[in-house]
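User: Some background: our group keeps a shared notebook of sequences we're curious about, and every so often someone picks one and asks for a predicted structure to add to the entry. Today it's my turn. The entry only has the sequence so far, pasted here. Could you supply the structure so I can complete it?
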Amino acid sequence: MEDVRSVLSQFKGKFTKDGAQNSGGRPPTLSSIPDLFFDEILLKFKLSRIEILVLMYLYRQIWTKTNLNKKFGIGPINSFKEMSQYLLLDQRDVIDSIHSLEKHGLIQTVRVGQYFVRKFFTEDFDLKYGQSYDEFF
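Assistant: Of course. Here's the predicted structure to add to the notebook entry:
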């Protein structure tokens, strides 16, 4: 039987010997997603796994990445192909999910290649949180 220490020595630890955290290459990042998404949107809307992936991708573009229109929720999409490759999904599934999310009222097309992701996701929540989009229409 092998010694436990010899087996464990083959694996990298979470911390280095000096106590610093071992990042293993790229440092971890955080994404800001409003609690409203978890507390109400996931409960109110019965979204598929792919719809949730697409929506979270769009939310990350709005709340996490540099976005000049963060206040109003404009999220650009470079291309369906790029998005499907990043999410490891078929391009047709991504397009179908976007159309489904539009039907739910969670996103809205502003123009081809760019989606308007409502900051509070539905008209009811817009009213509840005082969000206005008059500047876009």
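Suggested note for the entry: The chain has six helices and three strands. The beta strands are 74-76, 107-111, 114-117.
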